[in-house]
Amino acid sequence: MTHAIEIKDLHKHFGDNEVLKGIDVTVEPGQVVCVIGPSGSGKSTLLRCVNLLEQPTRGQVRVQGVDVTDPDVDIDAVRRHIGMVFQQFNLFPHMTALQNVMIAQQRVLRRGKRAAEVVARENLDKVGVIDKCDAFPAQLSGGQQQRVAIARALAMNPDLMLFDEPTSALDPELVGDVLAVMRKLAEEGMTMLVVTHEMGFAREVADRVVFMDGGVIVEDGPPAQVIGDPRHERTRSFLSRVLHPED
Amino acid sequence: MTAEPGKARLSPRKKQRISRGVQYALLVAIVVGVVLYADWPSLAQNFTKLDVAEKALPELFTIALRNTMIYAVGGFVLSFVFGLLLALMRLSTVGPYRWISTIYIEIFRGLPALLIFLMITFLPLALPGFEVPGGTFGQGILGLGLIGSAYQAEVFRAGLQAVPKGQTEAARSLGMSAFRAQLTVVIPQAIRIVIPPTTNQFVSLLKDSSLVFFLGVSGQYVELAKFGNDLASQYANATPILVAGVTYLIVTIPLGYLASRLEHRKGTRR
C-alpha cells in the first residue's frame, strides 16, 4: 500500500539558515498526524514542503507515491489532491464565501457553475457557515473565515489535508468551532497532517504526534506517549511550558 | 531683570496670538496691493469678454472637449493595458522581461512629455512609409499611451505587490497554475487597490493631452488648449483660453474628488 505522505531525509535551507535538518515522516491513509514544537522549529516549513509551497533543498517528498520534487511532475495536478488550510485563512477578499468555495472547482476542475455551487453549498453546510454564503470575508469572524477556508479546500475532494496552525490567529472563543470541524473530518477518515499548538486536540484526535525542535524530529509516536509520557527532556520541557505557562 | 517662574514676559499663547495677527495684517496688505495695482477694466476686457466667450460655443464642447476626451481616454486605455503588461514583466522571474520593462519605464518617465510628442511628429522621417494608424488621433493617443503606460506600470506594480503573498499561495495550493492564480486572484485585487491612483493618472493624461498642440493639429482634430489658443489669436483676446481652462477644471476637479472618495472607501471589503 502506498503511503499518503512519505518524507525522507528532508532538508531545507533559507540562505545560510538551515530550517529542516533531515526529516523522516510517513503518514498512512486515514491517519491524523499532529506536528507540535516551539516556534521556529520548522513545523510550518515541513508542511509547506509537502505541497511544494517551499522547494526542498534536499531529500524526498512523496505524496501518494508521487515524488513532488521531481521536475517532471505536474505540481498543479498533485496539489489538486492536497487541501491546505492556512493560519491567516487567505480567503479571496474580492469574492463572497460561496464564490471562494466555487472558484477553484470551476477554474481547476472545470466543473460547471451549477455543479460547483451544489458542492460549495454542501461543504459550507458541513462546516456550519451555510448562512454566510453571500458574505464577503471581511464581514465574517475569524472562525467563520477559517471554516469557509476548510470548505474551500474540501470542495476539491482532496485525498489529504494540510493544516498550518489553523487556530493560531483566532480569538480564543472561536477556536472550538474550527477544531470541531477538524474533529469531524478526522472521524470521517480524512488523512490529515496538522501543525498545531492545541494539545487537547492532538491528544484526543491524532493517531500520532510528532515533536519537532531545531529542525529535527525529536519524538514521533502515539499521543499517549509523546504528550502523555515523553521520553526526551526537550519534549518534556516544551510540554510543561505549553501546558503550564504560569509555572 | 529676572522673570518670576511661571510668569514669562510673554506666554506662548500670547506669542501665538501676536504672530497670527501679524500674518493676517500681511495678507490683507498683499490683497489690497493687488487690488489697487491691477488694471481691472483691462483684465476684464482681455480675459472675461462675454461676446468672445460666446463665440466658443458650441464647438467648445462638440469639438474641443470631445477631442480632448478622445485623446485622453484613448491614451488611458493604451496605458492601462500596456502598463499592466509592463508591471507583470517587471515582477517576472524571467530576467530579460524585467530588464526590458525597467528600461522602458525609466526612459519614458525620465523624458519630458513634450519631447516625446515632438519625436512622434518625426516618426515618418525616421521610418519612411510608416504611418501611425488613426492619423492625428492615432498619433496623439500613441504619445499619451507611451508616456502613460510607464507611469501606470509603476502604479500597477505597487498594486500587485500590495496583494499579500498568502493569496497566491492559497490559489496555487488549490491547484491553479501561476498564470491562473494571477488572473483570477491577484490581478482583480490589484486593480481594486490601484483605482484611486489610476484616476489621478487619467487626470494627468487629460492635462497632457494639451501637448497634442505640438503635433500641428487643426480643424476637426483640435483639443481644448489648441482650440482656446486659436480663438484667442483670432480675436486678439485671452478670454477663450480662460474658457478652455474652466472647461478642463469642470472635468478634472470632480475626478480629483472621485479619486479621494475612492481612496477613503478602500478597505471596506477587506
TrEMBL record, chain A:
Record has Transport as a keyword: yes
Organism taxonomic ancestry: Bacteria, Bacillati, Actinomycetota, Actinomycetes, Streptosporangiales
Domain named ABC transporter: residues: 5-239
Membrane-protein topology: Peripheral membrane protein
Protein name, UniProt field: ABC-type polar-amino-acid transporter
Chief place where the protein resides: membrane
SMART domains attached to this UniProt entry: AAA (SM00382)
Family: Belongs to the ABC transporter superfamily.
Main enzyme class: translocase
Reactions accelerated catalytically: a polar amino acid(out) + ATP + H2O = a polar amino acid(in) + ADP + phosphate + H(+)
CDD domains named among the record's database cross-references: ABC_HisP_GlnQ
Alphabetically ordered keywords of this record: Amino-acid transport, ATP-binding, Cell membrane, Membrane, Nucleotide-binding, Transport
GO molecular function: ATP binding; ATP hydrolysis activity; ATPase-coupled polar amino acid-transporter activity
UniProt subcellular location: Cell membrane
Family annotation (InterPro entries): AAA+_ATPase (IPR003593), ABC_ATPase_HisP-typ (IPR030679), ABC_transporter-like_ATP-bd (IPR003439), ABC_transporter-like_CS (IPR017871), MetN_ABC_transporter-like (IPR050086), P-loop_NTPase (IPR027417)
E.C. no: 7.4.2.1
GO cellular component: plasma membrane
Organism: Nonomuraea cavernae
Pfam families, sorted: ABC_tran
